User: What shape does this take?
Amino acid sequence: MSKKGFTLLEVLIVVIIIGILAAISLPQYISTIEKARSGEAVTNVGSLRTAIDRYWYQRGEITTNPDNLDIDNPNSVTNKLYSYSIADNGTTSSARAYTITATRTVSGITYTVTWVQTSNTTGKLYRSANLGGPVSP
Assistant: This one.
């Protein structure tokens, strides 16, 4: 008598293999999603950077309050993913130096995107290591 179909053991082995593959791929999926979400931070940091530069060219100083800039404050957006802060690193009327930091904390994991402006011509964007980039100096 020939029976067609799968035994319980065969089905169980297939389910276990699928579970192992899911356990391996889930962290990579989450990492990829967070990298994509960091695009919001990169865009808003770029907008803040441009607005701060305009503010400095007009007034010879920078502001650490995004409400004083000529753009909408990204912290006031209802469904924002990141929180934004600006720090003055010794800006003068002839040279600007500041840091813009975008921070997101989910389940105890903190993701950051940072722009560090060190002079009028030198600045660099950093992403935290969990977003695939070097951390800021």
Summary: The chain has a mean pLDDT of 90. The helical segments are 8-59. Residues 42 and 55 are 20 Å apart (CA to CA). The two ends are 73 Å apart (CA to CA).
